[in-house]
Amino acid sequence: MRAVILDRFGGPEVLQLGEVPAPRPISTEVLVRVHAAGINPVDLKQRQGHGPLSHLPMILGWDVAGVVQECGFGVTIFSPGDEVYGMPWFPRQAGAYAEYVTAPSRHFAPKPPSLSFPEAAALPLSGLTAWQLLVDTAHLKAGDRVLIHGAAGGVGRLAVQIAASLGAHVIGVARAGHHEELRALGAAELVDYTTTRFEDVVGPVDVVLDLVGQDYTPRSLPLVNPGGTVVLVPSGVDDAVARLGADKGVRVTNFLVEPDHAGLLALSRLVGEGRLQPKVGAVVPLEDAARAHQLAESRTAGGKVVLSV
Ligand SMILES: NC(=O)c1ccc[n+]([C@@H]2O[C@H](COP(=O)([O-])OP(=O)(O)OC[C@H]3O[C@@H](n4cnc5c(N)ncnc54)[C@H](OP(=O)(O)O)[C@@H]3O)[C@@H](O)[C@H]2O)c1
């Protein structure tokens, strides 16, 4: 099959189209013909050698939308021809920048019928991150106040929609140019981080999603009600920050997204209800993966960059 092979870490130019044997599904696995593969910040970090994997050569990519080609022994939830989407294997190699992937069937779910393949490929990693953060980790409920740093990004935009659908009061931190769109997606308050320190204008909150890092978690802690939760997403929580949280009775935690059949079904339900919509900024052919990474790195596409396979 055709695949984008990474045989050394480096800039976008290291992404080269090649030929490798197609994977074969074993028991409980499906073979999926990939139609679209979404690009996430972790792909860019992995290409540079700063991702979860250290072996070479490898095939990048975790976000998949495609069609089931073959089912291994024991698979009961899919049949050949079914349209599926998912984030298989993360943080092990999934190899989404290729014509075929294999993975346990429950790493996938039926593709929401209203989404195109590129839209469906833009959803799993960012959407599962937002869902697992808000629902499984922070236990967000109606009436809670949630502060989202990086609200206009791939994860943040979906987190705003999911939090609003849960009935929370959503406060988003993003550039002013994104405010109108984020308000339409459900944000009740917005702060422009380029002109305003969020801690000067935001009232008490129950949950903080820190999708930015830097000093955003320690700066957010004074705003959080006792019993609240802060999730630091781009990096680990250091001892000093953990102590700050403990002194305040606030839970401060790391997070890493996991493959999640139930989470995908929940995202699909929200899409079906018209309460969640991924945003594709550009669709680029697989053979132009280097250009697609440049575009994703420039953050000028206005949405997720997706490879069409
Ligand atoms: N641990 C996990 O499981 C997990 C899962 C998914 C993502 N992540 C990580 O989480 C981070 C966000 O992911 P993503 O996919 O949403 O990335 P993204 O699409 O690149 O979005 C990042 C957003 O952060 C905004 N931003 C940058 N500096 C900011 C600041 N000082 N204040 C407020 N917003 C700021 C950017 O806005 P501008 O364009 O205005 O700069 C952009 O909208 C990345 O580091 C990613 O690797 C971790």
Structure description:
The chain has 309 residues and is an alpha/beta fold. It has 2 domains: 2-123 and 278-308, Quinone Oxidoreductase, Chain A, domain 1 (Alpha-Beta Complex), CATH 3.90.180.10; 126-253, NAD(P)-binding Rossmann-like Domain (Rossmann fold, 3-Layer(aba) Sandwich), CATH 3.40.50. It is 28% helix and 28% strand. The chain contains 10 helices and 16 strands. It has helices spanning 41-47, 117-121, 124-137, 154-165, 179-185, 198-201, 216-220, 239-248, 261-272, 289-298; strands spanning 2-6, 15-19, 29-38, 58-59, 63-71, 83-86, 100-104, 108-110, 145-149, 169-173, 189-191, 205-210, 224-232, 251-253, 280-285, 304-308. Strands 3, 5, 6, 7, 8, 15 and 16 form a 7-stranded mixed sheet that branches. A 6-stranded parallel sheet has the order 11-10-9-12-13-14. The longest helix has 14 residues, at 124-137. The radius of gyration is 19 Å and the shape is globular. The termini are close together. The mean pLDDT is 98. Bound molecules: NADP nicotinamide-adenine-dinucleotide phosphate (NAP). NADP nicotinamide-adenine-dinucleotide phosphate binds at residues 40-42, 126, 129, 149-150, 152-156, 173-175, 193, 211-212, 233-234, 255-257, 299.
CATH topology of the largest domain: Quinone Oxidoreductase, Chain A, domain 1
Q: Give the number of DSSP strands.
A: 16
Return the string of H and E elements: EEEHEEEEEHHEHEHEHEHEHEHEHE
CA distance, first residue to last residue: 11 Å
Helical content band: 25-40%
**CATH architect. name of the largest domain:** Alpha-Beta Complex
Tell me the radius of gyration.
Answer: 19 Å
Bound ligands, named by name, code or SMILES: NADP nicotinamide-adenine-dinucleotide phosphate
**Mean pLDDT over all positions:** 98
Broad CATH class of the largest domain? Alpha Beta
Principal-axes shape call: globular
Number of domains: 2
